[in-house]
Every structure is written in structure tokens, then in C-alpha cells.
Amino acid sequence: MLKIDNLHVRVAGREILKGLSLEAKAGEVHAIMGPNGAGKSTLGNVLAGREGYEVTAGTVEFEGQNLLELAPEERAAAGVFLAFQYPVEIPGVNNTYFLRAALNAQRRQRGEAELDSMQFLKKVREKLAVLHLKDELLHRAVNEGFSGGEKKRNEIFQLALLEPKLAILDETDSGLDIDAMKLVADGVNAMRDPARSFLVITHYQRLLDYIVPDVVHVLAEGRIVESGDRTLAHELEAHGYGWVAGRHAPAGAA
Amino acid sequence: MATERIQMESELRDRLRAPATGNEAVEAALSRRYDAGFVTDIESDSLPPGLDEGTVRAISARKHEPEWMTEWRLKAYRHWLTMTPPHWAKLRIGPIDFQAISYYSAPKGPKYKSLDEVPRELIETYDKLGVPLHERAKLAGVAVDAVFDSVSVGTTFQKELAAKGIVFCSMSEAVKSHPELVKKYLGTVVPQGDNYFAALNSAVFSDGSFVFIPKGVRCPMELSTYFRINAGHTGQFERTLIIAEEGASVSYLEGCTAPMRDENQLHAAVVELVALDDASIKYSTVQNWYPGDENGVGGIYNFVTKRGECRGPRSRIVWTQVETGSAITWKYPSCVLRGDDSAGEFHSVALTHHCQQADTGTKMIHIGRNTKSKIVSKGISAGRGQNTYRGLVKIEKGAEGARNHTQCDSLLIGKRCGAHTFPYIEVKNPGAIVEHEATTSKISEDQMFYCRSRGIGEEDAVSMIVDGFCKQVFRELPMEFAVEAKKLLEVSLEGAVG
Amino acid sequence: MGAFLDSMLAGRDGLGGVRAEAAAALLRDGLPGPREEAWKYTSLRALEQRRYAPAPGEATDVPALAAFALPGVDGARLVFVNGVFQPALSDLQAAPGVEILPYREHPGQLDKDLEGHHGTGSADAFLRLNTALVEDGASIRVVAGADAGAPIHLVILGAPAAADLAWQLRLQVELGAGARLSLVEHHLGNDEHAHLGNLVANYVLGAGARLELLQVQDAGERATLIRRGSFHVGEDAQLAATTLEAGAQMTRHDFRVHLAGRGARLESRGVFVLHGRQHADTHMDVRHEARDTSSDVLWRGVADQRSRGVFHGAITIAEGADGADAALSNKNLLLSPQAEIDTQPALEIYADEVKAAHGATVGQLDEQALFYLRTRGIPLDAARRILVSAFCSAVFADLQPAVLRERLDELLATRLPQAGE
Ligand SMILES: Nc1ncnc2c1ncn2[C@@H]1O[C@H](COP(=O)(O)OP(=O)(O)OP(=O)(O)O)[C@@H](O)[C@H]1O
Ligand SMILES: [Mg+2]
Predict the structure, then answer these.
(1) Which DSSP helix (H) or strand (E) runs through A169?
(2) By CB count within 10 A, which of B183, B233, B429, C341 is most buried?
């Protein structure tokens, strides 16, 4: 599904990702952990196609095509979804209207029929129920005045509605209370599918108790420095990132 | 002279249609043109270009006006002669040759006694513009006065309105049918000598709408006027007067279009609103005069004086405008808040693209106690457009408890446009509170990326964000107009991105 | 020609060069009239009819040093009385790399500085007047890399004289690359004269230089004071200005900042506190002319009794000045039914990668805060004073040293409405 090879990325003149490689097969859940400023969000942004992130070397293949040459909306249509760490507010743009425009734009690009408003609303209602989101949020402007937790849940709601092939969740658990975190995890688990992969960026092992990953990676200083199964997350929780760094001290020199 | 070809327009359309594949994107692109740019092929009776006392008398004579009206015009004309054109602080504009303009143009033939007599070409013109004048369109439930060049060609629903004592007719008609009202109110809000263009308008005004809502009556439907400039080398000088007596209320809409021409045509209107005790007037404009082409050739000079006076206590005047057209727009719909507890509002979206220039805003003059005003202005500049907000909030000594809140936001699309904000705040009463806030920025990259990462293309994302930016103002418009306004904005922004 | 210009220029036929040009232009155009946008709220009609004796005139009563000392301001000192440099009261001892030249003692320098600034001039009448007639002032230069150390105190004092005088002063301040200077411009005087002062100051900040400027305007309450400061801020240079306008009958202060080099920054804090029939007109004009420049302007105003406060704060972002970040805020309190505040923030923007915002308010004290203080037992009058004073001193919040800040607070307190008024 996703194959990242030796990815180097510069942001504002500074190299942030320094030869990152990662492969995720269809149906897999990969957790990415790592210290603040390691480049986790940078990875998410690069995959989604944000401007200002300059790929200086390396490749990213998504379902066999070169992801890096696609515009952000083309990536979305191809099935890449990023749940933002800090979802932006768009004043005046109605949430429902936005979602429908997004969904139909993607469907159009894929040559699928657009949904009329009845079909769309039906779909929306289903997904809302799963996430226990208030109807009222739909009538507000995109993320405007949403609480931190509401914004995160709105991201997962979009995920449910847009049904991408690859979902990147950037710290979707931060700022959520315990119950909301369970809801989000349930939402994600309900979407697990042999044809869908997840990159779950998180600082907390707790989320991974709910969304059980197939692989756990540690991203530090722009590289994956350690990968393992879910027990790696427990080790990190217990020992901190220093533990990984200690085990790989000179590795960066290679 | 005004018989020009529709063919040109249809050729243009054919050319645009050439690559059509029946697909929607092309359709959409097609509609993103100045749709109202066609010319109606109808013979007209026009005065030759030029302006002197004879011209003023000739206009008055064609309209069969009473002597007092002719004198009123002449007085204004003589005053105008003593005035100098305004100094344009922020506008790029050549001198206007007032002798090269024809001050009167009307479709030829006898005056139509009823809508049934209006020639088919005219009815079709308005149909094409989406303004229904014919019978079946009455279902729409909006009473319409249609002004074609210098004259009103028909007003719908007059009988129904008359039953409630409401007068809705053309200004020319009102001068004859309700001279006492016209005499009492005309020029009392915008005096003849108020400014250069108001004086000119007072001398040569051709037509416009007259609305009178008697005491206690709520006008049961939206009233609307549709202004159309058709003939070349003519100016349009309409004059509108709306009076709402004690406790009366009315919502009035105005739309404007003109053909594409490579000359600059002058539109210098005056609008006066009078709201007596507890009365309320809502005045909405969607202005889509021809803006000129990408290089700034042609387009309407839109120099308008609009002012409302809240004369009575608790009266209310709301101006809402969406300005997407004209080469130059220069207008400041204002409120004089004389009555205690009266309120004025101004909601504006002004968009300038290519070489358009807009200098618009409002004046809120607080005279009465506890008067309130609210200003929301959204400016969008694209291409080489220059967009200026200019506003005055004045709190006079006696305006104890006055309140004003002003919010002015500007959005920049592209490197070569300009956005300017010039508010004036003058406060003479220590019990007043005035707040002004303004921001200017380009469309946020974060917002763009968010939309695009959800699959929405660049152009759509821009119009979505721009529409959101204007929402606060669109909300003030009646439903049909809001839809129209949104569409206009999209059309006007075509090619602004990238 | 009005009485004013007549009294100023009559008999001054011997002027040469830029002075003659300026005088001719002044005579041709006169003083700005009410239709001139920049003078919309400040009428010069009365001034036009006044006559002044030519300066310098003998001062009859010059206060002792202690009267104008400011705590923490203990660097070099330049004292001007009625527009004339006072060597006896001054102390030109400065840090290495700092050169202070009073023009009275260095007329050649004045000529050079006048020439240097010719052509950049605008049509401003008072600038012309100054150029034509100025004979005094000083140039202060800090060489590249030097730190001028303790604040230099510039004292501009009005003292009673046989007749009301009109004086001109010129100031030229130049900071080389990386230089640092702290300067205090201090106007004061008593009410026994009604002189007209006209100060023109040009500042040039080289790359990476930093100027901290404190302006304390506490001129005599019958005086007329016209000031014009032009700042050219180079690459990565910083101007931090704090301004207090408390004195003078009529004052007009033009503050023009050109953020001319990439990364240039301005921080301006100011307040006017007016009473009686005072009229204060401040014109801030900030131009972002290079990339990544930033400006942060925060001004407050209080007008009591029959005073009138005018604030014009314009920000222009020129074409190509991408990355500019501009914010301006102007808040005012109107305390009397006879007072007036006119505020006019303005934005003119010709670039698109920018962030610009301004806000202006005119209003009264926060009722809730007032109520809160009263529930704690503070009488209404005192509560008002506390809040007004807090409103003003927010402007000095970051000023160092604390003793100086306290002195300014004291000064403010004497200008605020007294209890029972
Ligand atoms: N647009 C940008 N401009 C400048 N620096 C940036 C930009 N985006 C990211 N960086 C820098 O890149 C580094 C990596 O940032 P990133 O957001 O990817 O970290 P992260 O691993 O997601 O951290 P966190 O756990 O705190 O979210 C940081 O040092 C950050 O400051
Ligand atoms: Mg992050």
C-alpha cells in the first residue's frame, strides 16, 4: 500500500526528515512514536502534500504510483487521508457543505456518481451515530469554535465519511478525555479493513491498547530508529525515548 | 445609435463554447463570464451628448414634468456648475468629459400603459437577466420595477400593493401622481448640493423607483428594481426615494447590469431613504455593472450617493450591498441616526478583480440618544484590483449612550492587488462606545491545504473560503439574492487563482 | 501672507541654498488648510494670525538642573532653552564611539545635515519652516558596533521671555551597523510663556542597530509644539519608542517610520493625557518597505474637560514587502462631554504575503472593573482614577528602569482628573 524509501525533507531550509523508510501493507496498522520535534507531523504533511515541504531525496509510492507528484486533492481522491494534529478553522464555511463538497469532489475524480443531498445526509447520520458527535456541530462552520476534543472527533468523523485507503492520524488522541478516546478508537477499529491501512502517530501507549498496532516505529531525528511489535510501545512507556537513543547512539553516523 | 447587435454577443458565446465536451467543468467555466454583457436590439430615443440648461429642460419636457420639478432641476444644475469634481485620493481615473455623455435614452415608442404593452425584446432582456416581468413570473412573489436606460419600463404588482396604500412606481410617475410626497421628501436626505455627483444627478436624473409605505403597514412582499444600462454613450442617473411612515416596514432590492462596451459609462445615482418613528427599511443591492475587461478597458463608473435618515425614534435602516461590478465604484451608503434609539447597519462585500477599483464604505452619524450602528465590511482584492474601505463613525454631542461596532476584513488574492482601510472615528460624547477592528491577509495556506487534503480542488477551495469570508454579509440578503451574490462572486473571481 | 509667516520670514532675505528653497516653497504654499487631509482635525487658523518674536531671545528664568533630571537617565545631556543650546547646563561626555555635536558650535555640520536631508523632504510646511530658519540642535552619531550606554538626555525647555518666541531645532541621529543608543527626548516648561517650538528629527538606523527612544512631552501648558520625527530603519535594525504626550496647549507630532531594510522592526508605545483646552494630534505613519518587516504600535489616549485628542495611525505595506507583519491598536477614554477624540487608523496594503490588523476604540472605563473596586470599598472617584491610570500606564509596562517608569506614572497622575472634579 505505502512504501517510503529514504525520504529526505527540508522545511524552511532545515532538514527534518533524514532518510526515513517505512512500508505499510494493506490492512496493517502502524504506530509511530517519537519525541517532540522528531518530524512525525512533518511526515504526515509530506504524505498529504503540504506546500513548503521540500523532498530532497527518496521516494514515496502509494499503491504503486508516485505519491509525491500528486496535488493534495489528487492524493485525497487516491485515498490518502490526514487527520490533522491542529485542524484549522474555516470561518463561514458550513461543515456539512464542506463535507459534501469534499466527498463529491473525490467521487468525481474517481469517476463515481456524486451523492445527492438525501443520500449524503443518510450517510452522515450513520457516521455521526457511531462517533456520538452532536448534530449541531454539522451546522457550524468548519472547526470554528470547536473545542480541542471536538476538532479531533470531527477529524475522525471525516475519516469515517470519506473512507480513505490510507489514514494518517496525527496525535488524534491528544486533548481527548478517556471516553472520547475510546469513542475515537472504536471509530477507527470499526474502519479496520483488509484493504485499509493506518499510520497512527501518538505519544501515548494508552491509545495503542485500544487501537492495537501491527507494527510500532520510533521516529527520532528524522529517521525510523527502531521498529517492533506492540511491546515496543510498552518499553517506551517504561523507559522513555532516551532508552532507544542509548541503544542506537552511534547509529546516526552510518 | 443604440441599435447594436446581439450577434456579437452570441459569437462570443460560440467561441467560448467551442471546446465544450458537455462536461460540467466546461459548463462551469462558461458561466464564469460576464453573463449580462449582451446588448438588446431596440431602437431608442436619445438626447444628443452634451449638457446645458437646454438639456435639463429637454429631459424634464420628455418626462412631461410639472414646472416645479423643472425648476428644481435647474437649481441643481446651476449649483453643479459652481462645483469642482472630487479629488480622487485613491483612484486611478481620467477626467470625465461631461459633454460627451448623452443624458437621456429611452426605448422608442409611446409610453407603455401596462406590462402587456412592453415590447417582447425588453421582456426577454429581463428574462435573460433572470428578472421576471411577465404574468406567470408573479408567482415569484417579488414586485419589480424595471429601469431600462433612462426610463422605467414597467412595475409589477402595483394594484396589489395599492390595496394596502403602498405606492411603488417609477420616479417619473410619482412626480405626477404623488407630487405632494415628492415635494415633501425629495432632496431632504441628500441635498442637491451634497456633492458633485449628487448635484449632477439632481439636475438630470432620469428615472428610478419611488416607494411609499403608509403608517403601520408592513410591505407584504420584497420590492425590487432592476437597472439596466443598454444604450452606448449614455449615462444613467437614477433617483430613488423610499419613505416608510410611522411603524411601516419594507425590504427593497436593487440589481444592476450593463452590456460589455469598451467605453466607460457613467452611473451616478442618488438614493434617499426616510424612516419615521418605529419604521424599518432594508435596502439591498447586488451591483454587477460591467466591470471592464482584464486590461481595464471599458466598464461602468459607479458614483453613487446613498443615504438614509432615521428621523423617528426607534427607526431602523439596514444597507446590504454586494459590489462585484463596475470599473470604479464610489459609494458610501450612510445612515443619519436622528431619532433616539434608532439603528443603522451596513453590510458590504466588495470584490475587485483585474483592474477594478472600489472605494466604498459608510457613514454613521449618531445624533439621537442611544443610537446604534453596526458595520461589517468584507473586501476582496484580486488581480490588480484596488479595494478601499472608507468609513466615518461620528458621535455627536447629544448622542448619549451611542454604540458602534465596526469590523472590516480584507482578503488578498494575488501579488498585485491592493487593500486599504480608512476609517474615521469622531466622538464627542463620553457616554458612547465605538469599536473598530480591521484585518488584512491573504487566503490562509492552512485553510487551502485543509480543503485540498480533503479532495477539494484549488479554485473550489478558494471560492469556498471566500464565500465563508462573506457569509456574515450574505446572511443579510434575501434568499434568492444570496444565491445570486454567491454565484457572482465565483464568476468574478474566475482566473484569480494560480 | 498671514501674520505668522510674516513674523517668521520678514527680513530673512539673506537665506541661501536649501534654506532659500524651503522659504520660497513655504511662502508659496503657506500653512496647510482645513481641506488638507493630514490636518483635518487640527486647525492652524489661530496660529496663522499669531506673531512671534524671532528666536533666540533671552530666557529670563532658567530652572536648575534638578528640575528636569529623570531617574535612570544619566548619560550625556544636551539642554536647549527656548531653542538655544546651553553649554553650561549640558554634559557632552559620552561613551567611546559616540559623537555629539551641538550645531551652535558646529554650524558646518548643520549645513551638511540640512543638505543631506534635502530632497527627501515632503511638502510639510513646518519642515520647510525649520529648514529655512533652524540654527540650533545637534547631531548624535554612534559608530558601527558601539554601545552608547546610559541614556542620553535631550532636554528641550521653554522658559519665560520678553515676548513669545518661535524656535526651530534640528536633530540628526545616526547609528552605524550594530550600534545601540538609548535616547530620551524631554520637553518641559511652565505656563508663563506661549512659545512655538518646531523640532525636526531625523534618525538613521544602520543594519542591526537598536534605538530605544523615550519621548516625554511635558511642555508648558500654553506652548505650541510641532514635532516631526523621521526614522529610517535598516536591515534587522530595531526601533523601540515610548511616547508620553502630556503638556502643551497645542501639539502636533508626526512620527514617520520607514522600515527600509529586511527584518526591520518597530515597536511603538504611546499615550496622550489631555485636559483643559489642550489639543494633541499624533500622526503615526509606518511604512513597510522591505520583506519580513514588523511593526507593533499600541497607543492610548485620555481626553478630559475641553480637550481634543487626535490619533492618526497609518500602516502602509509597499509592493514586495512580503512577510510584513503589522499591528496597530489605539484605545481611548473620553471623560468629559466637552472633550473630543478623533481616531483614524488606516491600512494601505500592496503586497499579499502579509498580516495586518488594526483596532481603535473610544469609550469609557469598564463598568465591571469599576464595580469590582467599589465592592472592595474604594470610592467611585478613586476607583476611576485607579483605572484611568492603569489604562495609561499599560503603555509603559516594559519600560526600564523601574524608577523611571514610576516617575512617569507620577507625572501621569498629576494630569489625570483629580478626585471630586
Ligand atoms: N513550517 C515549518 N517551519 C519551520 N520549522 C518547521 C516547520 N514545520 C516543522 N518545523 C520544524 O521541524 C521539526 C519537526 O516538526 P514536527 O512538527 O514534524 O514534529 P513532531 O514530531 O510532529 O513533534 P510533536 O510531537 O511536538 O508534534 C520541528 O523542529 C519543527 O519546529
Ligand atoms: Mg506533531
Answers:
(1) strand A166-170
(2) C341
Output the nine-digit C-alpha cell for A220: 527520532
If you measure CA to CA, which chain B residue comes closest to A46? B453
Q: How remote is the C-alpha of C198 from its chain's centroid? A: 11
Mutate which of B407, B448, B451 to disrupt the A interface (most A C-beta within 10 Å)? B451
Rounded distance from Cα A37 to ligand 1 centre (Å): 5
d(CA A161, CA A141): 17
The answer to which of A18-32, B251-265, B388-402, C216-230 has the lowest mean pLDDT is B251-265
The residue among C178, C176, C290, C199 whose CA lies nearest residue C252 is C199
Tell me the C-alpha distance between B309 and B273, whole Å: 6
ipTM: 0.90
Angle (CA) B412 B418 B420, round 5°: 100
Nearest-Cα distance to chain B for C198, in Å, is: 27
- Per-residue pLDDT band at A127 (split at 50, 70, 90): confident
For C76-95, the DSSP string reads -EEEEETTEE-GGG-B----
Per residue in B225-258, pLDDT (tens digit) is 877 777 677 788 989 999 999 999 999 988 866 6
Confidence at residue A248, expressed as pLDDT on a 0 to 100 scale: 59
Widest Cα–Cα separation across chain C: 70
| Average pLDDT of the residues of chain C | 91
Cell of A17: 526528515
Q: Which percentage of chain B shows pLDDT scores above 90?
A: 53
C319/A251: higher pLDDT: C319
Backbone angles phi, psi at C227, to 5 degrees: -130, 145
Residue C313: which of C278, C266, C277 has the closest Cα? C266
Place of cell 527656548: C82
Would you tell me how many other CB atoms lie within 10 Å of the CB of residue C376? 8
Identity at C198, one-letter amino acid code: N
Of A160-169, B29-38, C26-35, which gets the smallest average pLDDT? B29-38
Q: How far apart are CA C255 and CA C257, in angstroms?
A: 7
Which residue type occupies B291? Answer: P
Pocket test for ligand 1, best of A33, A41, A173 (most atoms within 8 A of CB): A41
Residue located via cell numbers 425584446: B121
Helix (H) or strand (E) holding B487: helix B479-492
Q: Among A186, A214, A225, which Cα is nearest to A33's? A: A225
Tabulate helix, strand, coil % of chain B (nearest 5): 25, 35, 40
pLDDT recorded at residue B326: 87
Cα distances (angstroms) measured from residue A161 to each of A88, A200, B98, B424: 19, 18, 61, 49
Contact A49 B453 (CB under 8 A): yes
| Cβ proximity of C194 and C163 under 8 Å | no
In this structure, are residues C417 and C304 in contact, taking their beta carbons and an 8 Å threshold?
yes
DSSP B218: B
* C152 neighbors C184 (Cβ within 8 angstroms): yes
pLDDT in tens, B99-152: 988 888 876 666 666 666 666 766 676 666 666 555 444 434 566 777 766 666
What is the gyration radius of the CA atoms in chain A, in angstroms?
18
Convert the pLDDT of each residue in B371-400 to its tens digit: 999 999 999 999 899 999 999 999 999 999
- Which residue has the least CA distance to atom 13 on ligand 1? A37
pLDDT at C98: 97
Q: Are B256 and B230 in contact (CB under 8 A)?
A: no
* Total residue count of chain A as it appears in this document: 254
C-alpha cell at A252: 546516526
pLDDT above 90 coverage of chain C, percent: 71
Least confident of A187-201, B46-60, C110-124, C336-350: C110-124
Residue type, C185: E
The total of other beta-carbon atoms located within 10 Å of residue A247's CB is 12
Residue of chain C with shortest Cα separation from B412: C352
